[in-house]
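We include the entry.

. . .
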Amino acid sequence: MDAADLRIFEAVARLGGMSRAAAELNTVQSNVTARIRRLEAELGTPLFERHSRGADLTAAGRRLLPYARDIGRLLEDARRAARDDGDPKGPLVVGALETTAAIRLSPVLAAYAAAYPEVDLVLRTGTTAELVEAVLERRLEGALVCGPVHHPQLAHEAVFREELSIATANPVRRLEDLAGTGNLKIVVLRAGCSYRQRLEEILARRGVVGLRRLEFGTIESIVGSVAAGLGVTLLPRAALEPARQEGRIAVHPLPPAEAAVETLFVRRRDAHVSRALAAFLETARTGEVRVQAAE
Protein backbone atom coordinates (compact mmCIF):
# COMPACT_ATOMS: atom_id res chain seq x y z
CA MET A 1 0.00 0.00 0.00
CA ASP A 2 1.47 3.37 -0.98
CA ALA A 3 0.40 6.97 -0.68
CA ALA A 4 -0.49 7.29 -4.37
CA ASP A 5 -2.94 4.39 -4.16
CA LEU A 6 -4.53 5.88 -1.05
CA ARG A 7 -4.86 9.24 -2.80
CA ILE A 8 -6.74 7.59 -5.66
CA PHE A 9 -8.88 5.62 -3.20
CA GLU A 10 -9.81 8.83 -1.35
CA ALA A 11 -10.77 10.59 -4.58
CA VAL A 12 -13.03 7.71 -5.68
CA ALA A 13 -14.66 7.59 -2.24
CA ARG A 14 -15.21 11.36 -2.16
CA LEU A 15 -16.49 11.66 -5.73
CA GLY A 16 -18.43 8.41 -5.86
CA GLY A 17 -17.02 6.99 -9.06
CA MET A 18 -13.91 5.95 -10.97
CA SER A 19 -14.49 8.23 -13.95
CA ARG A 20 -15.05 11.30 -11.77
CA ALA A 21 -11.89 10.53 -9.80
CA ALA A 22 -9.92 10.08 -13.02
CA ALA A 23 -11.06 13.49 -14.27
CA GLU A 24 -10.01 15.20 -11.03
CA LEU A 25 -6.65 13.40 -10.95
CA ASN A 26 -6.02 14.11 -14.64
CA THR A 27 -5.58 10.48 -15.59
CA VAL A 28 -7.55 7.79 -17.42
CA GLN A 29 -10.27 5.70 -15.82
CA SER A 30 -8.46 2.44 -16.56
CA ASN A 31 -5.53 3.61 -14.44
CA VAL A 32 -7.80 4.45 -11.51
CA THR A 33 -9.59 1.10 -11.80
CA ALA A 34 -6.30 -0.81 -11.93
CA ARG A 35 -4.91 0.99 -8.87
CA ILE A 36 -8.06 0.35 -6.86
CA ARG A 37 -8.03 -3.33 -7.79
CA ARG A 38 -4.37 -3.57 -6.81
CA LEU A 39 -5.13 -1.98 -3.45
CA GLU A 40 -8.06 -4.33 -2.87
CA ALA A 41 -5.88 -7.33 -3.74
CA GLU A 42 -3.16 -6.18 -1.36
CA LEU A 43 -5.65 -5.70 1.48
CA GLY A 44 -7.55 -8.88 0.64
CA THR A 45 -10.98 -7.24 0.72
CA PRO A 46 -13.18 -5.19 -1.63
CA LEU A 47 -13.28 -1.48 -0.90
CA PHE A 48 -16.09 -0.47 -3.28
CA GLU A 49 -19.37 -1.84 -4.50
CA ARG A 50 -19.55 -0.98 -8.21
CA HIS A 51 -22.85 -0.12 -9.87
CA SER A 52 -24.08 1.71 -12.97
CA ARG A 53 -24.06 5.09 -11.21
CA GLY A 54 -20.54 4.81 -9.78
CA ALA A 55 -19.09 3.17 -6.67
CA ASP A 56 -20.03 3.05 -2.99
CA LEU A 57 -17.71 2.22 -0.12
CA THR A 58 -17.93 -1.18 1.51
CA ALA A 59 -17.60 -1.50 5.29
CA ALA A 60 -13.86 -2.09 4.82
CA GLY A 61 -13.63 1.00 2.61
CA ARG A 62 -15.36 3.12 5.24
CA ARG A 63 -12.85 1.94 7.85
CA LEU A 64 -9.91 2.71 5.56
CA LEU A 65 -11.08 6.18 4.48
CA PRO A 66 -10.08 8.16 7.62
CA TYR A 67 -6.54 6.78 7.38
CA ALA A 68 -6.30 7.67 3.70
CA ARG A 69 -7.42 11.22 4.45
CA ASP A 70 -4.97 11.59 7.34
CA ILE A 71 -2.05 10.30 5.28
CA GLY A 72 -2.89 12.69 2.44
CA ARG A 73 -3.06 15.64 4.81
CA LEU A 74 0.17 14.60 6.54
CA LEU A 75 2.03 14.37 3.23
CA GLU A 76 0.74 17.79 2.19
CA ASP A 77 1.85 19.19 5.54
CA ALA A 78 5.29 17.62 5.04
CA ARG A 79 5.62 19.17 1.56
CA ARG A 80 4.69 22.60 2.91
CA ALA A 81 7.14 22.27 5.80
CA ALA A 82 10.00 21.32 3.48
CA ARG A 83 9.38 24.36 1.25
CA ASP A 84 8.69 26.80 4.08
CA ASP A 85 11.79 29.00 4.13
CA GLY A 86 12.54 32.66 3.55
CA ASP A 87 9.77 35.24 3.79
CA PRO A 88 6.19 34.14 4.59
CA LYS A 89 4.38 33.16 1.41
CA GLY A 90 1.74 30.88 -0.02
CA PRO A 91 -1.75 30.05 1.23
CA LEU A 92 -2.86 30.67 4.81
CA VAL A 93 -6.42 29.75 5.80
CA VAL A 94 -7.46 30.74 9.33
CA GLY A 95 -10.76 31.19 11.13
CA ALA A 96 -12.26 33.65 13.58
CA LEU A 97 -15.44 34.33 15.48
CA GLU A 98 -17.82 36.82 13.87
CA THR A 99 -17.28 39.19 16.80
CA THR A 100 -13.50 38.88 16.70
CA ALA A 101 -13.42 39.57 12.98
CA ALA A 102 -15.67 42.61 13.43
CA ILE A 103 -13.98 44.32 16.38
CA ARG A 104 -10.39 43.08 16.42
CA LEU A 105 -9.05 41.94 13.09
CA SER A 106 -9.34 44.89 10.70
CA PRO A 107 -6.05 46.53 11.77
CA VAL A 108 -4.36 43.15 12.12
CA LEU A 109 -5.32 42.08 8.61
CA ALA A 110 -4.35 45.44 7.13
CA ALA A 111 -0.90 45.36 8.74
CA TYR A 112 -0.37 41.71 7.81
CA ALA A 113 -1.40 42.11 4.17
CA ALA A 114 0.87 45.13 3.76
CA ALA A 115 3.87 43.40 5.32
CA TYR A 116 3.47 39.99 3.64
CA PRO A 117 2.04 40.50 0.14
CA GLU A 118 3.11 37.00 -0.98
CA VAL A 119 0.76 35.33 1.51
CA ASP A 120 -2.66 34.40 0.11
CA LEU A 121 -4.68 34.91 3.29
CA VAL A 122 -8.21 33.52 3.61
CA LEU A 123 -10.29 34.27 6.72
CA ARG A 124 -13.34 32.13 7.45
CA THR A 125 -15.82 33.02 10.19
CA GLY A 126 -18.01 30.74 12.28
CA THR A 127 -18.98 29.69 15.77
CA THR A 128 -16.48 28.25 18.23
CA ALA A 129 -17.79 24.72 17.64
CA GLU A 130 -17.58 25.07 13.85
CA LEU A 131 -14.08 26.53 13.92
CA VAL A 132 -12.67 23.95 16.34
CA GLU A 133 -14.02 21.16 14.14
CA ALA A 134 -12.46 22.76 11.05
CA VAL A 135 -9.06 22.99 12.77
CA LEU A 136 -9.25 19.36 13.89
CA GLU A 137 -10.10 18.32 10.32
CA ARG A 138 -7.19 20.45 9.00
CA ARG A 139 -9.48 22.65 6.92
CA LEU A 140 -8.04 25.60 8.87
CA GLU A 141 -4.45 26.06 10.06
CA GLY A 142 -5.85 27.67 13.19
CA ALA A 143 -8.70 29.79 14.48
CA LEU A 144 -9.58 32.50 16.99
CA VAL A 145 -12.31 31.08 19.23
CA CYS A 146 -13.93 31.73 22.58
CA GLY A 147 -12.18 30.05 25.50
CA PRO A 148 -11.85 27.84 27.32
CA VAL A 149 -11.05 25.03 24.87
CA HIS A 150 -9.78 21.67 26.10
CA HIS A 151 -8.86 19.09 23.49
CA PRO A 152 -5.79 16.81 23.53
CA GLN A 153 -5.04 17.42 19.85
CA LEU A 154 -5.15 21.22 20.10
CA ALA A 155 -2.60 23.75 21.30
CA HIS A 156 -3.96 27.14 22.30
CA GLU A 157 -2.92 30.57 23.52
CA ALA A 158 -4.82 33.65 24.64
CA VAL A 159 -4.63 36.46 22.06
CA PHE A 160 -7.41 38.88 23.04
CA ARG A 161 -9.46 39.51 26.17
CA GLU A 162 -13.03 40.75 25.94
CA GLU A 163 -15.58 42.19 28.33
CA LEU A 164 -19.03 40.70 27.78
CA SER A 165 -22.21 42.68 28.37
CA ILE A 166 -25.93 42.04 28.02
CA ALA A 167 -27.91 44.26 25.66
CA THR A 168 -31.62 45.05 25.81
CA ALA A 169 -33.84 47.41 23.85
CA ASN A 170 -34.84 49.46 26.90
CA PRO A 171 -33.08 50.22 30.19
CA VAL A 172 -33.63 47.54 32.82
CA ARG A 173 -32.94 48.39 36.45
CA ARG A 174 -31.79 44.84 37.26
CA LEU A 175 -31.33 41.85 35.01
CA GLU A 176 -33.49 39.90 37.48
CA ASP A 177 -36.40 42.06 36.36
CA LEU A 178 -36.31 40.30 32.99
CA ALA A 179 -37.91 37.29 34.69
CA GLY A 180 -41.21 39.14 34.84
CA THR A 181 -41.38 40.18 31.22
CA GLY A 182 -42.86 36.87 29.98
CA ASN A 183 -41.82 34.94 26.83
CA LEU A 184 -38.34 36.44 26.93
CA LYS A 185 -36.28 35.66 23.84
CA ILE A 186 -32.51 35.57 23.56
CA VAL A 187 -31.05 36.67 20.24
CA VAL A 188 -28.00 34.59 19.37
CA LEU A 189 -25.92 33.13 16.57
CA ARG A 190 -26.61 29.60 15.37
CA ALA A 191 -25.97 26.53 17.50
CA GLY A 192 -22.32 26.20 18.49
CA CYS A 193 -22.01 29.86 19.54
CA SER A 194 -20.22 29.94 22.90
CA TYR A 195 -21.89 33.22 23.94
CA ARG A 196 -25.28 31.54 23.63
CA GLN A 197 -24.64 29.07 26.46
CA ARG A 198 -23.03 31.78 28.59
CA LEU A 199 -26.09 34.02 28.25
CA GLU A 200 -28.44 31.22 29.28
CA GLU A 201 -26.27 30.47 32.34
CA ILE A 202 -26.01 34.14 33.35
CA LEU A 203 -29.77 34.66 33.15
CA ALA A 204 -30.51 31.35 34.92
CA ARG A 205 -28.41 32.48 37.90
CA ARG A 206 -30.76 35.47 38.13
CA GLY A 207 -33.89 33.37 37.97
CA VAL A 208 -34.59 34.09 34.29
CA VAL A 209 -35.47 30.72 32.74
CA GLY A 210 -37.83 29.30 30.12
CA LEU A 211 -36.13 31.26 27.38
CA ARG A 212 -36.94 31.08 23.69
CA ARG A 213 -34.26 31.61 21.05
CA LEU A 214 -33.99 33.67 17.91
CA GLU A 215 -31.02 32.75 15.72
CA PHE A 216 -29.36 35.15 13.29
CA GLY A 217 -26.30 34.88 11.10
CA THR A 218 -24.48 38.17 11.74
CA ILE A 219 -23.64 40.51 14.60
CA GLU A 220 -25.40 43.37 12.82
CA SER A 221 -28.66 41.42 12.59
CA ILE A 222 -28.45 40.44 16.26
CA VAL A 223 -27.93 44.02 17.43
CA GLY A 224 -30.67 45.26 15.12
CA SER A 225 -33.10 42.68 16.47
CA VAL A 226 -32.34 43.66 20.05
CA ALA A 227 -32.83 47.33 19.16
CA ALA A 228 -36.21 46.41 17.66
CA GLY A 229 -37.25 44.85 20.96
CA LEU A 230 -37.21 41.22 19.80
CA GLY A 231 -35.06 39.99 22.68
CA VAL A 232 -31.78 40.32 24.60
CA THR A 233 -28.25 39.24 23.72
CA LEU A 234 -24.75 38.78 25.12
CA LEU A 235 -21.77 40.08 23.13
CA PRO A 236 -18.41 41.75 23.70
CA ARG A 237 -19.02 45.30 24.87
CA ALA A 238 -16.94 46.67 21.99
CA ALA A 239 -19.41 45.13 19.52
CA LEU A 240 -22.35 46.75 21.33
CA GLU A 241 -20.86 50.19 21.92
CA PRO A 242 -21.74 51.84 18.56
CA ALA A 243 -25.44 50.97 18.94
CA ARG A 244 -25.38 52.08 22.59
CA GLN A 245 -23.89 55.45 21.63
CA GLU A 246 -26.62 55.86 19.02
CA GLY A 247 -29.24 55.28 21.72
CA ARG A 248 -30.59 52.15 20.04
CA ILE A 249 -29.88 49.71 22.88
CA ALA A 250 -29.14 49.64 26.60
CA VAL A 251 -25.97 47.84 27.71
CA HIS A 252 -25.75 46.14 31.10
CA PRO A 253 -22.29 45.49 32.60
CA LEU A 254 -21.64 42.17 34.31
CA PRO A 255 -19.45 41.26 37.29
CA PRO A 256 -15.85 40.54 36.24
CA ALA A 257 -16.22 36.78 36.81
CA GLU A 258 -19.04 36.69 34.24
CA ALA A 259 -17.82 39.42 31.91
CA ALA A 260 -14.22 38.37 31.30
CA VAL A 261 -13.59 36.00 28.40
CA GLU A 262 -10.44 35.08 26.49
CA THR A 263 -10.23 34.73 22.73
CA LEU A 264 -7.88 31.84 22.07
CA PHE A 265 -5.96 30.90 18.97
CA VAL A 266 -6.19 27.13 18.54
CA ARG A 267 -4.20 24.91 16.18
CA ARG A 268 -3.38 21.24 15.87
CA ARG A 269 -0.42 20.19 17.99
CA ASP A 270 0.88 17.85 15.28
CA ALA A 271 0.70 20.38 12.41
CA HIS A 272 3.60 22.41 11.06
CA VAL A 273 3.46 26.07 12.05
CA SER A 274 4.26 27.80 8.78
CA ARG A 275 6.12 31.09 8.60
CA ALA A 276 2.92 32.65 7.30
CA LEU A 277 1.00 31.45 10.35
CA ALA A 278 3.75 32.45 12.79
CA ALA A 279 3.79 35.95 11.31
CA PHE A 280 -0.02 36.19 11.54
CA LEU A 281 0.06 35.18 15.19
CA GLU A 282 2.77 37.69 16.01
CA THR A 283 0.80 40.45 14.30
CA ALA A 284 -2.38 39.46 16.17
CA ARG A 285 -0.61 39.36 19.53
CA THR A 286 1.17 42.69 19.26
CA GLY A 287 -0.56 44.62 16.51
CA GLU A 288 2.89 45.02 14.99
CA VAL A 289 4.75 43.39 12.13
CA ARG A 290 8.18 42.04 13.01
CA VAL A 291 10.79 40.90 10.52
CA GLN A 292 11.43 37.16 10.81
CA ALA A 293 15.01 35.98 10.73
CA ALA A 294 15.85 33.43 8.07
CA GLU A 295 16.84 29.99 9.35
Observations:
- Residues 290-295 have pLDDT under 50 and may be disordered.
- The first helix runs from residue 3 to 15.
